[in-house]
Amino acid sequence: MTAALAPFAAQADHVSLTAQTRIIAAALAILFMVWILDLIRRDRLQERYSVVWFVAGLAMLAGAAFPGLLKLVADVMGVRDTNVALFSIVLLLLLGLALNFSVIMSRQAAQITRLAQERAIERAREQAAREELEKRVGGEGEGSVRE
Amino acid sequence: MRTLVFIPAWNEEASVDAVIADVRTHLPEADILVVDDGSADSTTERAQAAGVLVATLPFNQGLGAALQTGYLYALRQGYDFCAHLDADGQHPASEVARLLTEVREDRADLVIGSRYAAQPEPLPGAEPEGEDYEATWSRRIGINVFRFILTLATRQRFTDTTSGMRAANRRVMKLFSENYSPDFAEIESLQLAVREGLRVEEVPVRMLERTGGSSFLTPLRSAFFIFKGLVVILVGLFKPRHAEAE
Ligand SMILES: Nc1nc2c(ncn2[C@@H]2O[C@H](COP(=O)(O)OP(=O)(O)O)[C@@H](O)[C@H]2O)c(=O)[nH]1
Ligand SMILES: [Mg+2]
After folding, report:
1. Which domain holds residue A110?
2. Nearest to B58 by CA among B40, B70, B85
3. Which position has the higher pLDDT, B145 or B36?
4. Pairwise CB contact (< 8 Å): A120 & B48
5. Domains: count for chain A
């Protein structure tokens, strides 16, 4: 039974990455990295947030250039179908990225809050200084500056 | 000994004047700061016209961030004690005065005004006027859930975990100006204070019905609130302890 299925399995491995797929994947990976570079160049993306995207692009390129790698990963994961391996890896990667963004967002939310608080306190102090000044000026001018 | 009373206010132009006047009457020695949490109405102008300082947040940041602004201001300006009450007229300043007495006489670091602890006899001549506070059913569920969990988490009995009427000393100002969950201020702050070894005490107080505006707690929000609260308390149990306050 298993022996009868073996050739199909081998064929499935074959079909999952045809030469055409590999070329398209490689082209996409390169395009993707060029796009990242352009975003950095136009100051739309900060370098420190670009690293993870480059790694993703390079991984895609590596997978397209050396399909053996994908086979290796699939074997390590214990899945027979390289497609399943590919999808799970991509899914996990996206999940990790999304979480990473939530972490970054949380940090920035905390920073924004503190900034807003500092500004609020500054405003109260400005008001105090202004009122102090008005009082002094008003006192000297004997009510002439009164509103 | 200087005292700051701060009032978090978000779109409370209808009631902020009255609250300021109330604080002036019952706490004449205290400085007053209104923290305007990015109101769209004239809360800031009304408060300034009433002659108090206003810390206006450039955009709405939520009650937790507003309260933290007050603690931060009190700390930076060197106040010895601070207290806060709602801007909606639910918290009589005469009751806040009783909380402040507790911290001034150093019986506690943080004092919570509790609606649900055994009611005190009002001081003669200081009976707050208005309708007594009645919680909605959705809020009552939340209150009971939190009461139970917080008591478990802190091993201290709390009856009113979401009370926004509090008094504190400098130890608490230091702690809260650095660590104050913007999401779940009331409950997490209690847990935090107890964990840091501060003396937290509840004092029974009277609260009134809102005089203007409306509460933000709809039943749906309450459910979300409870869920967030559970997460916060659970996570709080495993947070590393901070360096001893002071
Ligand atoms: N709901 C809400 N209240 C805020 C906010 N910032 C400051 N506050 C003030 O916090 C106080 C408590 O709000 P309230 O809706 O009355 O809560 P409740 O008394 O617990 O039902 C009021 O004085 C509000 O003006 C905010 O972002 N949302
Ligand atoms: Mg209220």
Report:
1. 2-137
2. B40
3. B36
4. no
5. 1
